Amino acid sequence: MKFTIKLPTDLKEMSVEALLINEWLVPKKQRHFLRTKRHLFINGDIANFSHQVEGDDQITVIFDSEDFPAKSLSFGDQILGRSLILYEDEHLVIANKPDNMKTHGNDANEIALQNHVAAACNQTVYVVHRLDFETSGAVLFAKNPFVLPILDHMLRERQIHRTYQALCAGQVKQDKMIIDQPIGTDRHDKKRRVVVSRGGQRAVTHVLVLKRLATETLVQCQLETGRTHQIRVHLSSLDHAILGDAVYRGRKASRLMLHAKHLELRHPFTQEIIRVTATSESFERIMKKIVTD
């Protein structure tokens, strides 16, 4: 793998080592290979780690199979994968996952969204975050192992912003609210999660009412944390279970009415703001039917 990256114009001057460690989060092992193999260049010239870089410099890095061992992934449907891609560049790809499709398979032979996206990109892609099987919407993948730890770090530091829409039962009275309730595993069913008074993981969901209907409310949810089933558990705990959510006793619907509508991040190398909007025909169809009934 060979990448040439033009540094953002407003980047402050720093050493190559600082760039690799603090800005790009390159793991220690890979930094060692870059140093010993002299596989790092500034504006076309071989550089060492003490050299200074600044805005608009072009940094080239080369990684071989020893640096990042190749990982194989079974390819899915190339045409389907291409139809689902919302954004793609040299380092990352964002796809619109349909409802009732896994983000990634549980074994090498299982085909999921990751495999379809890989077929469309004609290369292995790496999962940065996942959506539940029943949930639709925007999912981020890394296109190489170089950028993967950077995106993982951005996700942990809440620098990747995910906005969901959910149609839940009843009329949510508050226009805005913050649900700050820890979540733990249901001791009666390990597949379910519940709000707990102690011993759970911190979980915070920001909720904004978008539209009140006769017996439902369309809400927007933003995650401050990313716990399993977080939005589903939090809304259900307030007696506003999401329609179609059989696990959390939501009213019957032909699909889970939870959709990852927007995904936004600052590109780790170019600093460009990337914001995508994912649509779902099944979600909109059910919404339209409920509004007109």
From TrEMBL:
<dbReference type="GO" id="GO:0000455">
    <property type="term" value="P:enzyme-directed rRNA pseudouridine synthesis"/>
</dbReference>
<comment type="function">
    <text>Responsible for synthesis of pseudouridine from uracil.</text>
</comment>
<dbReference type="GO" id="GO:0140098">
    <property type="term" value="F:catalytic activity, acting on RNA"/>
</dbReference>
<dbReference type="InterPro" id="IPR050188">
    <property type="entry name" value="RluA_PseudoU_synthase"/>
</dbReference>
<feature type="active site">
    <location>
        <position position="132"/>
    </location>
</feature>
<dbReference type="GO" id="GO:0003723">
    <property type="term" value="F:RNA binding"/>
</dbReference>
<dbReference type="InterPro" id="IPR006145">
    <property type="entry name" value="PsdUridine_synth_RsuA/RluA"/>
</dbReference>
<dbReference type="InterPro" id="IPR006224">
    <property type="entry name" value="PsdUridine_synth_RluA-like_CS"/>
</dbReference>
<protein>
    <recommendedName>
        <fullName>Pseudouridine synthase</fullName>
        <ecNumber>5.4.99.-</ecNumber>
    </recommendedName>
</protein>
<feature type="domain" description="Pseudouridine synthase RsuA/RluA-like">
    <location>
        <begin position="91"/>
        <end position="237"/>
    </location>
</feature>
<keyword id="KW-0413">Isomerase</keyword>
<comment type="similarity">
    <text>Belongs to the pseudouridine synthase RluA family.</text>
</comment>
<dbReference type="Pfam" id="PF00849">
    <property type="entry name" value="PseudoU_synth_2"/>
</dbReference>
<dbReference type="InterPro" id="IPR020103">
    <property type="entry name" value="PsdUridine_synth_cat_dom_sf"/>
</dbReference>
<dbReference type="GO" id="GO:0009982">
    <property type="term" value="F:pseudouridine synthase activity"/>
</dbReference>
<dbReference type="InterPro" id="IPR006225">
    <property type="entry name" value="PsdUridine_synth_RluC/D"/>
</dbReference>
